[in-house]
Amino acid sequence: MPSIPTETEGFQVDTPGVPPDFNRRSFKLKAADDYDVDIKIEACGVCGSDVHTVTGGWGKQNFPLCVGHEIVGRAVRVGPKVTLVKVGQRVGVGAQVYSCGECKQCKEENETYCQVNLINTYGSPWPGTDIVSQGGHAAYIRTNEYWVFPIPESLPTAAVAPMLCAGLTVYSPLVRHGALKKGAKVGIVGIGGIGHFGILFAKALGAEVWAISRSRTKEADARALGADGFLATNEEGWAAPHRCTFDLIVNCANSIDNFDLAAYLSLMDVHGRWISVGMPEEAGQTVRAQDLASNGVLIGASHLGSRREMLDMLKLAADKNIKPWVEEIQLGETGLKEVITRLKKGDVRYRFTLTGYDEVFGQ
Amino acid sequence: MPSIPTETEGFQVDTPGVPPDFNRRSFKLKAADDYDVDIKIEACGVCGSDVHTVTGGWGKQNFPLCVGHEIVGRAVRVGPKVTLVKVGQRVGVGAQVYSCGECKQCKEENETYCQVNLINTYGSPWPGTDIVSQGGHAAYIRTNEYWVFPIPESLPTAAVAPMLCAGLTVYSPLVRHGALKKGAKVGIVGIGGIGHFGILFAKALGAEVWAISRSRTKEADARALGADGFLATNEEGWAAPHRCTFDLIVNCANSIDNFDLAAYLSLMDVHGRWISVGMPEEAGQTVRAQDLASNGVLIGASHLGSRREMLDMLKLAADKNIKPWVEEIQLGETGLKEVITRLKKGDVRYRFTLTGYDEVFGQ
């Protein structure tokens, strides 16, 4: 058995920019423990969070930072107590890599809501160390087996990568907040990386799915993805015919600019749920109890999803042969700058996956 | 059988004021139909809505207006098709007196969320007429039998009146949003007219109940009402020990002045529900998806409760011998000015009921 590595090589951002510089260098991995898995990375999807982080939109982060949290690769080493992953297995890592495992939330499969020790895939200090977690624009990643997900054979690497964050982010609120109800009418607001998974998964779960977008530009795409209906919010009177009819709307929009929240809320059936998964950079929206009382709508947000939901989602994707729309980009400084620049202006249909890791880091 | 009356006598407000003038005069009743019940009023609780309305806090209303929507009296006439109420029966009327009865919401016992034809007890034009609905500071009220609720024998008239709006307003979100869960931890924010019912009913439903108030002034009252615990939000660090532990908090506060919403939301367990039933006059609060994501809390509001919930609540109150804290005031211009003035400054523990109707209107 080879000695356990202490570092890996990857692309770090030192200072936010649009796009920032990506600096190839070595950085420390967390110390390996008995439950850790080392993964040689083969692909990484590009998430809106990466853009918010490296362009400075979410403010101060733990720079220098290697971002990327939609990771697919091979397990190349497992700790002596690992039982969930085998060496050689193709696996994924999403946007979180650790939680305490002991609190009420963790024990109830709400580990992505752990209040005790929640470690993000990048940017979180590993407790008791000076090491900040680093993401998937790198040769290797190491983390606890619980946060490493075996990937069904039939799902192609570049296509499955974005499911690890974008997919799960919308899958979890769909199954938790109403899409499984018989005859559920589900809306997906914001047809981007997350939203396109919203249409795919809501349809696969059996719901009646409506895509909701500012204009009809993406209508053909939405219908090709499986939407049963389409609403364009720049059209006069778009909301009235659907008043009080939706069981669930997952709001995947990444901005609240010109966002008529009251019109959206009017769409909800009694106690229907308006769940946001985008985290806009803007200051927020004003809500009055009066605006929520006429249909008793519930407003919420959702954070990733549990391990069980991840495994269920991957199985659903395999069983239903779900095909995300993914554009592959060669990893490297050029590719990273391109994806950040294009994502910042929404120029992708509907997700980038960085591939060609062997070209950069060798076999 | 006497001829069917077309008018009744009561106290109307013409212009908002603090307090306004209450003018005794006759006004029209809706035309009687086959399903209507005429009630000779004996008592009427005084709701925060009455104060918001007659002092102008909620803006333009349909003045002149006779307010009051926690009405108890005797059925003195029933239409030929009425089956739910008998002449001579003691009955109540709450804050709503009609809905379409035909829409999805009405058919699913969400009639207080009817989007088609929701008639409030006072201030709503009866469709197809020039008659605006008038409330309980009057000798008689007439409405559809569905909105007339037989009252269990054991509940005293003055004590039960405030249940018709305040009681139901907090009972419905308790049973809909989590108080029935085994071991539920429920918070009641704002220990006023509605909040005191919140403590009484949450306890009667079996929950662990925490009263949450600005200071400890009302702690003894809250514990006497049945609260298991008490949190004072003016104390440093009040929220931290309860982080992520509440299943449901019903926010009964009537103002958002100095209201630290983020601290309240931090109390909620994963997908716990923060349900507002107060309708403050202020402009609202800013909410960001980020504030809701760490525990997936759901924010909502609630509007009254269904007929079934009303009957269940009255039965629970009778079965558990629930005793609201009510101060009786003689109906009349003096009494009305007094209750509005005292309610405006929160000087009541915890609800007024106007009584002595016979003194004013005769037997």
Automatic annotation (TrEMBL), chains A, B:
Keywords: Metal-binding, Oxidoreductase, Zinc. InterPro entries: ADH-like_C, ADH-like_N, ADH_Zn_CS, CAD-like, ER, GroES-like_sf, NAD(P)-bd_dom_sf. Its cofactor is Zn(2+). It comes from the Eukaryota. Residues 17-354 form the Enoyl reductase (ER) domain. PANTHER family: ALDEHYDE REDUCTASE. Belongs to the zinc-containing alcohol dehydrogenase family. This is Enoyl reductase (ER) domain-containing protein. It comes from Sporothrix eucalyptigena. The lineage of its organism: Eukaryota, Fungi, Dikarya, Ascomycota, Pezizomycotina.
